[in-house]
Amino acid sequence: QKLLIIDTDCGIDDALAIIVALAARGVKVLGITCCFGNTAVDNVCQNVMRVLTVCQQTQIPVYKGSAGPLIGPVTGFKDHFGTDGLGDVLENSEIWKGQIQKEHAVHALIRLVNENQGEVSLIALGPLTNLALAVRLDPTLPQKLKDLYIMGGNMEGKGNLTPSAEFNFSLDAESAHIVLEEYTCSTHIATWEFTCRNKLSWESFDELVNQDTSAARFMKKITSKCWAYSREPRISNKDLLFGHGFVPYDAFAVAACVDSSVITESLQCAVRVEVQGQLGRGMMVVDPANTLKKGHLVFVMRTCDLKKFSLMLKAALQIA
Ligand code: BDR
Ligand code: CA
């Protein structure tokens, strides 16, 4: 059995990613640790509980973690996925069940990995603040992980939050830097460009969410307002990154972890995060020639079996 811990800033794509993990066969989610990002950390905790409630998995413990980056103010909420992170369409009365644990997310992460040494796959779907703090408290943590899957960063110098930086890395560049330098376990990265190049057509997205299940109805509802804009053809189809379609960013990291055959090619290389400068801050620099002479190489995902991935998403939404 695969043991997972998911660290998330639960927005819309995180919700789908969590559902993929919950639905995967032979997988046990030990806990979900929350971080600020798409919305404030309290909303993130609530959103995770909502997803677990829809999937009838409220026995999975949820831990509240970092409310902001290591350095500087909290940035980047804006209207990305609405103020609440799930598209501002759910009523307060749409109750979620269960309770947030008292233990801090960073302590829980360290404890759960130490209790299951060598067995845990850690999946990071938001800013990497909790992971950076965890390695400061327990420097041996990375060597006790089985592997690490990250959605974040970029590989072609293109960004969605700034011209050159991806959202998760940009929100806490120092934490991204610490994680890529110090988590020397097997590390797999789904960059922003990779996820955009493998976006789903609206036809296949509709096929996913029009299934007669609670999880599909939930996904349909939370994407109804906020992703609607990219259905409009005002964005050029020729632009491979910002073009037409639904990008399930975080779900790629989960899919790669639970079924490695979804990823058909990765580049094994050195990477580093820029923490200085203005335009370049938060950018992941890919160094295939290893001019940095780093001992630790990561796997940067390059191509995927989109058909297999779509089928995985479709099956996941049949969970409840
Ligand atoms: C990442 O930023 C967040 O908004 C998404 O949830 C995803 O993790 C994409 O850049
Ligand atoms: Ca996310």
Secondary-structure topology with pairs:
Elements: E1 2-8, H1 12-23, E2 27-34, H2 41-54, E3 62-64, H3 105-115, E4 120-124, H4 129-137, H5 141-144, E5 145-151, H6 167-171, H7 173-182, E6 186-190, H8 192-197, H9 202-209, H10 214-223, H11 249-258, E7 263-273, E8 284-287, E9 298-304, H12 306-316
Parallel strand pairs: 1-2, 1-4, 2-3, 4-5, 5-6, 6-9
Antiparallel strand pairs: 7-8, 7-9
Beta-D-ribofuranose binds at residues 11, 13-14, 38, 80, 125-126, 151, 160, 166-168, 192, 249-250.
Question: Could you characterize what this model shows?
Answer:
The structure is a single chain. The protein has 320 residues and is of the alpha/beta class. 34% of the residues lie in helices and 18% in strands. α1 links the parallel β1 and β2. α1 packs antiparallel against α10, α1 runs parallel beside α11 and α4 packs across α7. It holds the Pfam family IU_nuc_hydro. InterPro entries: Inosine/uridine_hydrolase_dom, IUN_hydrolase, Ribo_hydro-like.
